[in-house]
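Protein fold
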Amino acid sequence: MKRFFLTALVCLAFLPSSSQAEEKVKIDDATKKSIDKALAWLKEHQDRDGKWGNPAITSFCLLAFMANGHVPNQGLYAPEVSKAVRQLLSEAQDNGYLAGRGAGNMYCHGMATLALTQVYGMTGDEEVKKVLKKAVDLILKSQNSEGGWRYDPTPTAADISVTIMQVMALRGAKDSGLHVPDSTIKNALKYIDKCHDARTGGYKYMPYSAGAGYARTAAGVCVLQLSGEYEAAQIDDAVKYLEREESDRTHFWYGHYYAAHAFHQLGGKKWEDYYTRMKDTLLSRQKSSGEWLERMEQQNGAAYQTAIAVLILSVPSDYLPIYQR
């Protein structure tokens, strides 16, 4: 656990002054019961080899357990967490690619890398570090000339969604003590800035795409905050866009995965109002057996939706270093 506290101290160095205020949002009993029921459901639906679908979904599920204090060798679900970690490590290819042996891509790689940064930051496991370093090196080598990333691990095209996933992974890697060049993050932020839509305040899929989206805007605000750009001019307009649009039905879970952490980084009343609203929504939609499965994104499956719901509800616990203020 020593590395956990070291990681937390690193995170503290990037805190905005407003984060010194006492946290008013707490996890109440009803929410705790909801989370417990969801984690029990995820345990029962984990494959024998430790995965829940592809590496990205497995990573979301792994983070959901870790966000509630369950890590390898510690916590009620330590065996499930350990199996998931071993599964992610087994997916690593010789070049560090963590997208799985099937139809994976840099979405999977980014999420798996982020999850492993949290495992390494909280445990100091040297086996995880070996895989993680190669995974981070792959991200660094795949950044294109604009500063972004796309589906394949090659420096060709870019879009904001894949780019932000890689920045999150790099931020987690840096916080856990791995070397990440400052220039890589700066160039990525330049690309993300090009995707900002000054007319609406939101973020577009690509610099020359038409129209902003909730999920992309939430991700943009989240990564600006996590990168220490607390005073970025785009944040105020982007937050207004999020409050105005409320949600994105086509990417509800993905959007709120980022929105929860974006509002948490902002803190204050905006965070309190967002969390209260999302808590009420999620608790009302949870199935009696413990999972979430909304028709609007049924193709992604219940494990994906349940993991993200747990991550949103668990933000106030502050277990995961990447999401701490």
Observations:
- The two ends are 19 Å apart (CA to CA).
